[in-house]
User: Fold Gfo/Idh/MocA family oxidoreductase from Neorhizobium phenanthreniclasticum.
Amino acid sequence: MFRDSVIEDYADKHKIVALCDSNARRLGEAAKAVPKPGTNGVATYLASDFDRLIAEQKPDTVVVATPDFLHADYIVRAFEAGCDVICEKPLTIDLSRLKQIVDAQRRTGRKVTVTFNYRYSPARTQIKELIASGTIGTVTAVDFRWHLDRVHGADYFRRWHRQKENSGGLLVHKSTHHFDLLNWWLGSVPTEVLASGKRVFYRPETAVELGLAGRGPRCTGCPVAARCDFELDLSADENLRALYLEAEGEDGYFRDRCVFDEEIGIEDTMQAHIRYASGVTANYTLTAYSPWEGLEIKFQGTKGDITHRHVEVHGVFGGKRAHADEDAITTELHLAGEPPRLVQVPKAKGDHGGADPVMLGYIFDPEGMEPDRYGRASDHVAGAWSILTGIAANASIETGSLVNIQSMLRARGIHLKG
Assistant:
C-alpha cells in the first residue's frame, strides 16, 4: 500500500530509495513494482543489511511493515540513525519493546506515525464528530463487538500471527485498531481491564467434527483439502504463489498452515471490560469465526444513544465470502423523548471504507490536505495507548485478575502522556 501510493500518487513529492526484506524472493518481487528508468532498479537489501541500507541510502523516513514482534527493533534503529518512521499497527506487542520505543523517541526526538486507517473512514469520523459535539450528551458506556469471518478470521490462525510471541495475539494485533478507535472517540485512555479469552473453534476437535480427520500440517499436500472449506490454495493465486509458495525455499515460511493445529497459541474468542480515565466503561467482544464480518457498537449518553453497524461481509458459504455493499453501514441516533432516526452516513471511494486514500494523503502530502480538525494523526503515544488495553487484557486472561494499566507501566518504568 505504501509503496504503490508513493509511486502512483505522490511521486512528485517522495521517492523510494530502497526496499528491505528478510526473504530475497519477496524482495525481488517488490522491486519489480518500483520503476527506476535508466538505472538497474531500486536498491534492495536483505534484513541483515538494514544498517548498511541506512548508511548508504540515507532515507528521511523508514516504513516498517514487518511482523509485529520486529517493529520495535526497526523503529529504534531508524530513530538512532536520524530517521522518522511510518509504522503499521500495532506499534509493538509487549511492555519491554514499548519501553525501548518510548526511551528511544525521548532520546532522539524522532517521530513515528502509526497508521490507524480506521480513524480516517468517513463513517468513523462522523461518529467522532457526533460524540465531540455533545449530540448524546456525556458518553457513559460503550458496547463494542467486532466479528471476523471464517475467511479473514481463519487466516490469522495459519500465519505467523498464530503465536503470541509474534503478534501479541488478536487482542494486540487486531484489536489495537478497535481500542485506538475507542481512545480517539472518547478522548480518554484506559485505566483498568478485566478480560477472558479462549480458543474454542480453531482446534483439532473442530477438524474432527467437520470430517477432516487425517488432515495434513498445511493446505499444500493435505489429503483432505478438497473437502475443507478452510483450504488456502497458494498455487491458485498469482500473488500468493509468487510471494509465498515460490519463496519458501528462502526461509521455510509456510503461509498455509492448518488452522486447526494443536500448537496454535492465540485465542479466537475474547471479551474485555475496560474502564477509562474519563469514567466511561466499555464492554468489548472479538470473535474470529463469525458467519459474517463487521462491527456493532453502541454509545450510551446522558441525552441518548448512538448505534453504529457496518456489515463488511454478508456471510461465508463453503469457504467463499459474500461481500456487502456500501449501504451496509448504518448509524442510528436515538435521543431521549424522540423516536430513533437514521443518520446519513458519508461515503468515499477507496479501501477500508474510503479511509486509506485520506490517511495516505495526510501522510505523504499534508500541505495538500485541509487542516485535520479531528486529530487523526497517531504518534508513539497514541500507538502505545492502543496496545496497552490488549496487553492488559492478555495479562488479565493469564492471571484471572483485574489489571491496572498505570501500575503495569510504573513497574516497567514507562512514562506516557495520558
The radius of gyration is 22 Å.
